[in-house]
Amino acid sequence: SQTIHQWPATLVQPVGSPLSLECTVEGTSNPNLYWYRQAAGRGLQLLFYSVGIGQISSEVPQNLSASRPQDRQFILSSKKLLLSDSGFYLCAWSTGLAGFNEQFFGPGTRLTVL
Amino acid sequence: AQKVTQAQTEISVVEKEDVTLDCVYETRDTTYYLFWYKQPPSGELVFLIRRNSFDEQNEISGRYSWNFQKSTSSFNFTITASQVVDSAVYFCALAQGGSEKLVFGKGTKLTVNP
Q1: What is the CA radius of gyration of chain A?
Q2: Angstroms from B80 CA to nearest CA on chain A
Q3: Residue range A10-17: mean pLDDT, rounded
Q4: A32 to chain B: which residues are within 8 Å by CB?
Q5: CA B89 to CA B110: how far, in whole Å?
Q6: Is the confidence at residue A98, as pLDDT, over 70?
Q7: In degrees rounded to 5, what are phi and psi of residue B80?
Q8: Quick one: which of A2, A28, A51, B77 has the most CB atoms within 10 Å?
């Protein structure tokens, strides 16, 4: 069966510090991968998605970036965190396009920027 | 533009009551997909159901049922005989056919009291 892992589970970082969140999927090949952010009291916002190694699409301009160095690995990064980057970050995978396939979510990383 | 509205921010019921979570969507596309996800306190989103725009048949899964009505652009979710374990935030989401983008509503927080 497929599983999705995210780490760390929680993170407290000072403003201006770098960020690296990792997501890995097991039990499937060539998944579509997604990064979402959930701010307090709001729905999920799609940040990035990837349909293959090295292929990254950005949905929202911001100081975050994403990379996919391996088929089942998706990394969210920042060189300098802002207060507004605080939130709950969720990674998800699907077997194909969002419209045709359900997405399966990881346990999330709760990021607090102070 | 696509939009999902969940007008009920929070709902509180007593165990064994029936409860309906409303979802209204906006899209100009004729092919689209609607989803419901459950987010328990642990934070991980759990997929519940996917419907496509060509299938208005209502669906029942145990205590859960979904009412899809294109005429009112609604995809409502009913929990029958609610239980404490149903307490969670529930998200409705919309995807255009062939798109990678899943647009989420802001969620409805359901609290089921014993």
Answers
A1: 13
A2: 24
A3: 97
A4: 100
A5: 6
A6: no
A7: -95, 140
A8: B77
Number of Cα atoms under 13 Å in the Cβ half of residue B23: 28
A:B CB pairs within 8 Å: 69
Q: What is the CA radius of gyration of chain B?
A: 14
DSSP string, chain A: --EEEEE-SEEEE-TT--EEEEEEEES-SS-EEEEEEE-TTS-EEEEEEEEETTEEEESS-SSEEEEEEETTEEEEEESS--GGG-EEEEEEEESS-TTTS--EE---EEEEE-
Quick count: other Cβ atoms within 10 Å of Cβ B59? 12
pLDDT at B100 over 80: no
CB A89 within 8 A of CB A36: yes
Check CB contact of A102 with chain B, cutoff 8 Å.
yes
Instruction: Give the residue among B101, B100, B103 at the shortest CA–CA distance from B91.
Output: B103
The pLDDT confidence band at residue B49, using thresholds 50, 70 and 90, is very high
The predicted pLDDT at position A2 comes to 86
- Determine whether the interchain pair A41/B101 forms a contact, defined as Cβ–Cβ distance below 8 Å: no
Q: Taking Cα atoms as reference points, which of A91, A98, A111, A96 lies closest to residue A24?
A: A91
Please report which confidence band the pLDDT of residue A33 belongs to, taking 50, 70 and 90 as the band edges.
Answer: very high
d(CA A36, CA B102): 10
